[in-house]
């Protein structure tokens, strides 16, 4: 597994590079955001550990660029930063980060979080999920609706996959937070609601038959709207 560390503070960068190498990972180190993005786009990176305050290109911009590129949109990103305000954590998650760890940190916790992110993957017993005219190719991480390809970020795909494989079940915000972001749900933030809104814009808004529904006070469910007709089966 090759991990890219993007960290401009020399001691911290060297410490992370040495410690992760000793933990069994191949490590590449970039000292600024622009170089880090270039390395990530080379295609051999399994996970990115990303600081926010970086020269030449800050962590927010790097993450946005990664998520906008089909070649890197699914690469897990873990923010490792001294910015510990709630709105910073929320912004990172909303932009598509997979985890957020605040400095100072325990190295064993960082390694545990990295291994958790690297273990995540498609549910192999079900390669293709179909709901109405929505198709989710779990292995290739591709989504189509009514024959149209839909590009999702890594977290949008994880959220859709969770809702779809538990079709018909109302999932609480706490469950979604723990399954998709590996975090405890904080009722003072709207990370889950904002993520669902973004997913709906891509999955539901362009189509008449809505699949993602809100159950007020309970959570979200993926199912064919009983008020909408099912599409006619193909020949």
TrEMBL record:
Pfam families: Response_reg, Trans_reg_C. SMART domains: REC, Trans_reg_C. SUPFAM superfamilies: C-terminal effector domain of the bipartite response regulators (SSF46894), CheY-like (SSF52172). GO terms for molecular function: phosphorelay response regulator activity; transcription cis-regulatory region binding. Residues 2-118 form the Response regulatory domain. The keyword DNA-binding applies. Residues 126-224 bind DNA. The modification 4-aspartylphosphate is found at residue 51. Residues 126-224 form the OmpR/PhoB-type domain. The keyword Transferase does not apply. InterPro entries: CheY-like_superfamily, CusR-like, OmpR/PhoB-type_DNA-bd, Sig_transdc_resp-reg_C-effctor, Sig_transdc_resp-reg_receiver, WalR-like, WH-like_DNA-bd_sf. Keywords: Cadmium, DNA-binding, Phosphoprotein, Transcription, Transcription regulation, Two-component regulatory system. Coiled coil: none annotated. It comes from the Bacteria. One of its GO terms (cellular component) is cytosol. CDD domains: REC_OmpR_CusR-like (cd19935), trans_reg_C (cd00383). GO terms for biological process: regulation of DNA-templated transcription. PANTHER family: REGULATOR OF RPOS, TRANSCRIPTIONAL REGULATORY PROTEIN CUSR-RELATED. NCBIfam families: cztR_silR_copR (TIGR01387). This is Response regulator.
């Amino acid at each position: 597994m090759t991990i890219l560390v993007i960290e401009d503070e020399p001691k911290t960068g060297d410490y992370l590079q040495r410690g992760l190498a000793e933990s069994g990972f191949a490590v590449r180190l970039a000292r600024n955001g622009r170089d880090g993005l270039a390395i990530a786009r080379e295609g051999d990176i399994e996970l990115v550990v990303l600081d926010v305050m970086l020269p030449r290109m800050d962590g927010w911009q790097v993450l946005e660029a990664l998520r906008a590129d089909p070649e890197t949109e699914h690469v897990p990103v873990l923010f490792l930063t001294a910015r510990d305000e709630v709105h910073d954590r929320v912004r990172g998650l909303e932009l598509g980060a997979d985890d957020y760890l605040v400095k100072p940190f325990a190295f064993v916790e960082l390694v545990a979080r990295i291994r958790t992110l690297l273990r995540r993957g498609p549910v192999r017993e079900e390669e293709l999920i179909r709901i109405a005219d929505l198709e989710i190719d779990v292995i290739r991480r591709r989504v189509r609706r009514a024959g149209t390809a839909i590009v999702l970020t890594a977290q949008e795909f994880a959220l859709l996959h969770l809702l779809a494989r538990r079709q018909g079940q109302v999932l609480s915000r706490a469950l979604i937070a723990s399954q998709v972001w590996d975090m405890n749900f904080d009722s003072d933030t709207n990370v889950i609601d904002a993520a669902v809104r973004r997913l709906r814009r891509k999955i539901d808004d362009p189509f008449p038959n809505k699949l993602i529904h809100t159950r007020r006070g309970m959570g979200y469910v993926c199912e064919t709207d009983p008020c909408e007709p099912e599409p006619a089966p193909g020949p």
